[in-house]
């Protein structure tokens, strides 16, 4: 089976590829020659995932899945949410995003947060949605060298390490993307 993962993000591509069964050939947007940035104009994480998957299906006639992930911080009215990747501006700069988030949390007692991933699958003209959520909290300082995005400041509930202090395997077992991916893999295995 050949599937497109609608991403240009090499870190996400590698994380997802390691989870998929070997019988699924995974292609990225780069692999299919889709060099444009697919606009995320929906007002929900689920809506943005659907937009990206449908774009590939409609323009490249390939089965596809797309994800959208947001970090929702309770005391910031669930910011950054759908703006997680561009919280500090359109440059998608993780360091700037983290800096802005930590600044906005100064003086706030409640640091609870959750990562939410929505995966939209378009397969044989059908659309299926999978959701993964990981509850946790935002640390006061960056910890760890692994991962990407907000991983150095997100500590999952029940753990004493941030995502950036975990191996990719550990993160995939408990993380939002891993939870949504396992649902997708179970569906594709039927």
UniProtKB/TrEMBL annotation:
Binding annotation for substrate: 7-12, 69, 148-151, 171, 176-177
Reaction(s) this enzyme catalyzes, per UniProt: ITP + H2O = IMP + diphosphate + H(+); XTP + H2O = XMP + diphosphate + H(+); dITP + H2O = dIMP + diphosphate + H(+)
Residues annotated as binding Mg(2+): 39, 68
Cofactor: Mg(2+)
Enzyme class: hydrolase
Active-site residues (renumbered): 68
GO cellular component terms, A-Z: cytosol
Domain of life: Bacteria
Record-listed E.C. numbers: 3.6.1.66
Cofactor note: Binds 1 Mg(2+) ion per subunit.
GO molecular function: dITP diphosphatase activity; ITP diphosphatase activity; metal ion binding; nucleotide binding; ribonucleoside triphosphate phosphatase activity; XTP diphosphatase activity
Record-level GO BP terms: nucleotide metabolic process; purine nucleoside triphosphate catabolic process
Purpose of the protein: Pyrophosphatase that catalyzes the hydrolysis of nucleoside triphosphates to their monophosphate derivatives, with a high preference for the non-canonical purine nucleotides XTP (xanthosine triphosphate), dITP (deoxyinosine triphosphate) and ITP. Seems to function as a house-cleaning enzyme that removes non-canonical purine nucleotides from the nucleotide pool, thus preventing their incorporation into DNA/RNA and avoiding chromosomal lesions.
Record's protein name: dITP/XTP pyrophosphatase
């Amino acid at each position: 089976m050949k599937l497109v993962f609608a991403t240009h993000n090499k870190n996400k591509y590698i994380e997802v590829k390691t989870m998929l069964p070997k019988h699924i050939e995974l292609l990225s947007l780069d692999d299919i020659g889709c060099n444009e940035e697919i606009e995320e104009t929906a007002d929900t994480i689920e809506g943005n995932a659907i937009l990206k998957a449908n774009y590939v299906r409609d323009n490249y006639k390939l089965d596809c899945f797309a994800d959208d992930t947001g970090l929702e911080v309770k005391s910031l009215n669930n910011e950054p949410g759908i703006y997680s990747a561009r919280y500090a501006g359109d440059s998608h700069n993780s360091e700037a995003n983290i800096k802005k988030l930590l600044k906005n949390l100064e003086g706030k007692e409640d640091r609870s947060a959750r990562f939410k991933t929505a995966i939209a699958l378009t397969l044989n003209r059908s659309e299926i949605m999978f959701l993964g959520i990981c509850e946790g909290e935002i640390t006061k300082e960056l910890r760890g060298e692994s991962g990407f995005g907000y991983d150095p400041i997100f500590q999952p509930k029940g753990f004493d390490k941030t995502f950036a202090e975990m191996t990719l395997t550990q993160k995939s077992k408990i993380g939002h993307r891993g939870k949504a991916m396992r649902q997708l893999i179970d569906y594709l295995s039927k």
